[in-house]
Amino acid sequence: MSSDSMWSIGELAEHAGVTVKTVRFYSDRGLLPEAARSSGGHRRYGPEALDRLRLIRSLRTLDLPVPEVSRVLDQEDALEDVIAGQLRELGSRLTALRWREAALQLLQDCDPEERADRLRLIGAMSTPPSTVPLARFWRGWLPPRLPARLVSAILDQAIPQLPAAPTPAQVLAFARMHALVSGPCVGDGPCRPAVHRPEGGYRPAVLYDGLAEAFALAAPHLRARRPPHEGEALDCFVATHARSSGMRDTLDFRRRLGGLLATEPRIDRYWELAAELSGPSEPTPGAAHDWLNTALNSQIARQTA
Questions:
Q1: Backbone dihedral region for residue 300 (phi beyond 0: left; psi -120 to 50: alpha; all else: beta)
Q2: How far is residue 141's CA from residue 143's CA, in Å, rounded to a whole number?
Q3: Distance of alpha carbon 91 from alpha carbon 103, whole angstroms
Q4: Is this prediction's pTM over 0.85?
Q5: For 45, phi and psi rounded to 5 degrees?
Q6: Beta-ladder partners of 36
Q7: 211, 223 in Cβ contact below 8 A?
Q8: What is the pLDDT of residues 250-262, one digit of tens each?
Q9: Which listed residue, 71, 114, 167, 178, has the most CB atoms within 10 A of its CB?
């Protein structure tokens, strides 16, 4: 290439409609290689540098960081991956902004006497919020040494999906849930149910495998708003408890199970907040458990009478 077909840094800047400082910035970072140097040591650029500079400016207009621009320039198939990554990042930022907007709306619309408490709740969680504290809570609540696939299935059901565009009420529900799982165990009794404690003789893996089936059988009744009643779901619920404790499903066992469940530590508040966060379309495991427990107590009361 002859020197007549090459441009100085100023000429390239003029053709591209940018400042010399901009051209120098991209050159110094290796995005815009110079074609040669003049006898005086000044940078010289060929016409292809103009197309490259215009591409760099287009990518930067999309707010791509310089390292990502460099990837696109150096790798022919990198643009699609870079775009996908930027869309994920932008989605995360938009979600954070929507949660912040809903939180501000929550504070604006509440009564002045509620504002300090709500501000404390909101200030304790990240934006966008993280479900890590919820997972930590459940790992502490569940019995030890459960199979990993069972723990994963329980966490999938127990931890609600967070909305990308929450309402103020959903922000408040999650903030209260975050406070609940982050606080100490309350009450006089143990923090874990008896069926979670190794000295009780229960087989927790058998219990939780069966409970998932019982909850699935109860779910259609909850969706249809049917009152708790006897049937396949209740029988599966009781049989699961019987198998996990090495006993038979008898009327006497059902009475003892009803008494045990009545005295166990409960996390009803968690499930109430989970329902507020996720909406009523899909019953929570907590709602299914309460439905089955009520059906059991009704059966016991009727047979006793």
A1: alpha
A2: 7
A3: 18
A4: no
A5: -125, 140
A6: 44
A7: no
A8: 999 999 999 988 8
A9: 178
